[in-house]
Design goal:
single chain, 136 residues, mainly alpha, Arc Repressor Mutant, subunit A, 2 domains, RecX_HTH_2nd, Regulatory_RecX, WH-like_DNA-bd_sf
């Protein structure tokens, strides 16, 4: 509004009215952003950073994250399965070289960390054994 030539004295009452009417609600906006990022498979660390860049307060961000009770461990596992099909690295393209397996595991760890998951969640996701769910 300042860029359009309005004075601060004129802007303040309008913003107060919008906030009182519920048109401007940081808490609701933060909760919307949290749900949106969870749908994209992002972890809590990345969500905090993304919302902070929108200019919302830390208290507002934490309230939105705590209001949305989500299992971050399961989300990390789902993200790993979606990306790699088999999250647990046992061999790399027919090779059982320890060096190649270690490099592949490090690559997967970096990916999940970049998606906003902590080390505990990443290790849970990568220790997942897909054969354990399919015991018939």
């Amino acid at each position: 509004m300042l860029e359009k030539g309005f004075e601060v004295v004129d802007i303040e009452p309008v913003l107060d009215d919008c906030e009182a009417s519920g048109f401007i609600n940081d808490t609701r906006y933060a909760e919307l952003l949290v749900r949106s990022h969870i749908a994209r498979g992002h972890g809590s660390i990345r969500i905090r950073q993304a919302i902070a860049q929108k200019g919302l307060s830390k208290d507002c961000i934490e309230a939105a994250l705590s209001a949305n009770e989500h299992d971050w461990f399961e989300l990390a596992k789902v993200k790993a399965i979606k990306k790699y099909v088999t999250p647990k690295v046992t061999e790399v393209k027919g090779s059982q070289s320890r060096e190649l397996v270690a490099k592949e595991k490090a690559k997967r760890v970096r990916f999940l960390l970049s998606q906003g998951f902590n080390y505990e969640q990443v290790s849970y996701a990568l220790d997942y054994d897909p054969l354990a769910d399919n015991d018939d």
